[in-house]
Amino acid sequence: MSSADRHAFRRKLTELEAPLFATGAAAPSALEVTQSLAPLAAAAGPEAGPRAERLARLYAYGSATERADYQAEFGACGVRRFTAADGRVIYMMPIETFPNHVNNVYLVRQGAHTTLVDAGTLTHNATEDFRRAGAALARSFGEPADTLDKIPDCVITHGHIDHFGGVGRWRDLGARVHVHEFDARIISNMEERMVVTAVAVRSFLSHAGVAPELRGELEQMYVSGKRIFKSVPVDRVMVDGSRVGDLVMHHVPGHCPGHVCVQVDNILLTADHVLARITPHQAPESITPDTGLDTYIQSLEKVRRIPGIDLALGAHEEPIPHLNKRIVEIEAFHRERLAKVHAACEGQPRSLVEISKLVFGPRVSYDRLLALEETGAHVEYLSRRGQLEIANLDDLLAETDPVIMYRASKTIPLPDSLANRAA
Ligand SMILES: [Zn+2]
Ligand SMILES: [Zn+2]
Question: Would the pTM of this model clear 0.70, i.e. be above it?
Answer without folding.
Answer: yes
